[in-house]
Amino acid sequence: MISERTLRNLRRELRRSLLAKIGIVIVIFILLMAVFAPFISPYSPGKQNLDEARLPPLGFSTKETKEVTKMENGSVVIEGGEVVTEEQTVYTNATVAHPLGTDGNGRDILSRIIYGARTSILVGVFGTSLAALIGVLVGLTAGFYRGRVDDVLMRSADIMLAFPSLVLAIALVGVWGQAQAPFPDPFVVTGLAPAFRSALGFTTGMPDTVVLPGTVIVVVALVNWVWFARVARGEALSIREEEYVKAARALGASDGWTVLRHVLPNAITPILVLATIQVAAIILLESALSFLGFSGADVSWGFDIALGRQYQSTAWWISTIPGLAIVITVVGLNLLGDWLRDALDPGIEGEGGV
């Protein structure tokens, strides 16, 4: 349970910080959007309509010059045996049906933003959890035993830090491939989302599976476990010298029991703070992998940014809006992490954050 003192610190820092309130609101909004995507998404993220391709967001319009066949009195003008063409300016206006516009294939950007949040949150949470599991185990072992064990484990961590994160991630994905783990969407499979959408007159046909990019989750965990190992090691080195730890060992407690019962509980606070910040870092890494085509997920913010590259001069929103979604999410998570750090452990200074 969370102690009363910890709760007081959290409430005090929250009252003081407007940025903390903003971060909490952003994170809660993104989480709700990801969880309830089948209910709130206007369309299926994969639904295409080429007749509505590259529609601008509300408040914007586009102008494009096209070469069209010249017509006079309803007939095609032919001169010298050839069809005469002329330049014509075509205006495309926004529509309420697609408030954030559409991409090059006529897919609704708002729907893809909502479903893309699922990919980012899943990779961020599962990737961080796996990285924390590996890193905390290594760090606590190194800090508790010290000596040669510490040297071997932490030199391995230093070797990992010598590789650029993105380059190492790309190499690992190249070796293992793009393994994906689809599992049923409970809201769609049970009929809750279709019934809700049908009752409100919304379009049905939402995806009935959630695709978990397994390789990406493992890769981002292997790239980021080092930060958890360093924090856990530092805490273990300090806690192992406490009197209650020495007393437990003097009474015959095993090393494993001592670590689980005394060292880990007292080291968990900075680890939790770091985990919050690392979720943001992992979301950025997943977006980079998706942008470069190594994720395998076809509904991802990074993937949508890549799709919009060829339309930068004519349809800037295809890349810009997913990019803004990434920025807002990462800023919200970092603000949340700063709040937890200031309230729980102001001494770690956000190591390994973004």
Structure, briefly:
By secondary structure, this protein is mainly alpha-helical. Helix content is 61%, strand content 10%.
Tell me, briefly, the overall form.
elongated
Oligomer description: single chain
Radius of gyration: 26 Å
Sequence stretches where pLDDT stays below 50 over 5 or more residues? 348-354
- What does the largest sheet look like? 2 strands, antiparallel
The total of helices stands at: 13
Briefly note the structural class of the backbone: mainly alpha
pLDDT averaged over residues: 87
Could you spell the SSE succession in H and E letters? HHHEEEEEEHHHEHHEHHHHH
The total beta strand count reads: 8
Portion in strands: 5-15%
Topology:
Layout: H1 4-16, H2 18-35, H3 37-40, E1 61-69, E2 71-72, E3 75-76, E4 78-79, E5 82-83, E6 85-93, H4 109-145, H5 147-161, H6 165-176, E7 181-184, H7 186-189, H8 192-199, E8 209-212, H9 214-239, H10 243-250, H11 255-291, H12 301-307, H13 317-344
Helix pairs in contact: 1-13, 2-4, 2-13, 4-5, 4-9, 4-11, 5-9, 6-9, 9-11, 10-11, 11-12, 11-13, 12-13
Commentary on this structure:
The protein has 354 residues and is mainly alpha-helical. Helices cover 61% and strands 10% of the residues. The strands form four sheets. A two-stranded antiparallel sheet has the order 1-6. Strand 4 and strand 5 form a beta hairpin. Helix 4 runs antiparallel to helix 11, helix 6 packs across helix 9 and helix 10 packs across helix 11. The radius of gyration is 26 Å and the shape is elongated. The two termini are 29 Å apart. The C terminus is likely disordered.
